[in-house]
Every structure is written in C-alpha cells, then in structure tokens.
Amino acid sequence: MLPTSIAVIVRDWLNANHILFLGPEENVLVDAGYVTHADTTIRLVSERLAGRSLHRLVNTHCHSDHMGGNAAVQRVFGCPIWVPEGEAPLIEAWDTRALWIDYAGQRAERFRFDAVVRPGDTLAMGGYEWQSIAAPGHDMGALMFWNEAERILISGDALWQRGFGIVLPGAGYRERLAAARSTLETIRALAPRIVIPGHGTPFTEIEPAIDLCLSRIAGFEADESRLARHVLKVMLSFALMDVGSLEAATLPQYLETVPLYGEYDRTWFHLGYEELARQLFEDLARSGAVLKRDGRILPAAA
Ligand SMILES: [Zn+2]
Fold this sequence. Notes:
302 residues; alpha/beta; Metallo-beta-lactamase, Chain A; 5-stranded mixed β-sheet
C-alpha cells in the first residue's frame, strides 16, 4: 500500500515510528525515537539504509519519543536536523518544561537543529512531494506531511488508529483541544488513503479513527480534571516504559520528584502523593496498562 521508497519502521509507545525515505536524491528519516533506545533506532535505520548515507532527519514535533534520539542519529549518520519552525525556540533554549522533559519525568539528549520546516513548505522525500501542514493540539508546533498524489498522510501524534497524543490541561487547554479538533477536521478534508501515524501501524480506516478522537475531545472539554487524570496516567505509563519497572512502595516519592504530578494534584485532585500514587496505579492496573510483580510496578507490555 506504500511506495517502495518509503520504509515505515514501526516501534512502540516509548519510541515513535521512524519513516525512512530512500532516494532518489536524498535519504530522509522522519523521527528518531527515545534516547534510551537510540542504539536500536540506529540499528534499524542502518539495516534499511544498507550502507547508503542519511542526508536529513526531520521531526514531526519535538517530544522526547520523537526527538530524544536526534543527537545519537546525527552523531552516527552526520545528517542535518530539521525541526518544525514552532519548536525551534524551545529546542534552542532547551526548555525542559515546554518540551515535557524533566517536567514530565522524560529524558532526551540535547541537540542542535540545522534548519526549520514551516507549514506550507514542500519537502522532496522518497521521490514524492510532501506538503508540510500545521497540526496543532497535542503539540502546538507540530507538523504533518501530506502527499497529494498518493494521498498519504504522515500524521505524527495528531491521529493514530485509536486515539491521538495527549493535550495538556491548564491555562489555554480549551484552545489546545479546539486546535486538536480542527487538525482532525483538516485530516478529514484531506481524505487520506493511508495514514502513517507516529505510533502503531499505518492504517486506512480514517473516518472511524477521527470520530473516536473527536468524541474523546468532547469528553475532555466537558471535564478538565478528567483530562488532567488522563495525562498523569499517560505520563506515568510512559515513564515506566522508560525505566522498565519501579518499586511499588517508592511510587509516591517518584511522583514527588516530577513537577507535573504535584502541580496537577494541587490544582485538581488534592489527594497528596500517597493517595495519588495509589489511585494512578489502580487506574492503570484496571485498564491493563501496568501490573505489580514481586513488589514492583511494570508496564504490562514488559
Ligand atoms: Zn509520540
């Protein structure tokens, strides 16, 4: 369903998918995965390159699961890094709060970018022209890449087969949710034949995927604290995938070290770290995302 010049390397939730475009002039990689798995990223990309050079790395947006491995990829392949224009100031300043790094208990290796991609730019990748389209919501500076001739959309975290990247609560959250909705309507209007998402396998059932996201957005708009709780659960399962496991008894202390949890608790829940830890674990265990074994909490996928 995809041209042979496009290799989609499907990863997991900690590492965004890599999309590798081969030739005719340049070999281009979209998104580099998480920092702690950069060796795997480099191995997977090297296998597909099979001795060819990598000429450019482009990010859909600058969250740690997409750009955490940028520095490692650049070290190995020597390629310039292109980031969305809206992310450039955050990367330049290495704003670990706005980039959801320390603030959310995530990690990434600092890198320097060489150029920016603007909404409306056209990129030549894999022998096709890709239009860069603003995809605000999950990340207000995010971009999607659209090939009109083949009707292929690289959606980043704006649309997955079952969901979309979290939108943070707090000041401006209505604008962010409205932006996420309008990005989904943009995708609907494009009417892609196939979507290559930031996570999960490429898919062709686009309308139901959009409708599911829109109904989730409506639920979050109706209840900001529900959105806040959802974000904490996503951030905690992400952190567990990063570290592999955590001693259950230390979960409250862990939450205390990561600013996001205390901030959200003080704003919406007023539970304290012990009770917040208990509830987050219960919620995640009930949904099958995490489990407890020998006194340790681990992601169910492990
Ligand atoms: Zn992502």
